Sequence to fold (157 residues):
Amino acid sequence: MTNDAGDRSLSLLFRIYTSGEACETLVDETVDPHGVADGFVTMSLLSRAGTLTPTEISRRLGMRLTTTSALIRRLVERGHARQIPNPRDGRSQLVTLTEEGLQALTAAFPAFFETMREVEGHLTHSTEEVQAALDDLEQAFRAVREERLERARAASA
Fold:
């Protein structure tokens, strides 16, 4: 016997996951010739934000801190980012793009935007409708995660 509601939920989460993987693969293939496939989204965030802590990068991108830390290490090793002491907190670091990282990212943007236009051309809903649905999904994911963290904190208190 199957549970239709459970099957729909599994199907939804599975489709979201596979869509994310397909997007990541397409973006990586698009920007790889510019050497920024590993870290493109993080580099894009840093290009807009300037400097951020690893924790803030994790929060904004919805990534685990351990994943973010490993990615930052690879960006630094490639010379695309650097870590500097946080003047507000001597224990933490800020992450910023290097000039080399910014140049590589800037070189990748035209191909990225062309790929975005190609994808938008294949959508059966307006870009605005898709973005609204993605906003809803992201809010739902973050709300569930926060609720679980709150329950875990309450249980350990």
Summary: The chain has one domain: 4-122. The chain has six helices and three strands. The domain at 4-122 is CATH 1.10.10.10 (Arc Repressor Mutant, subunit A). Residues 127-156 form the longest helix (30 residues).
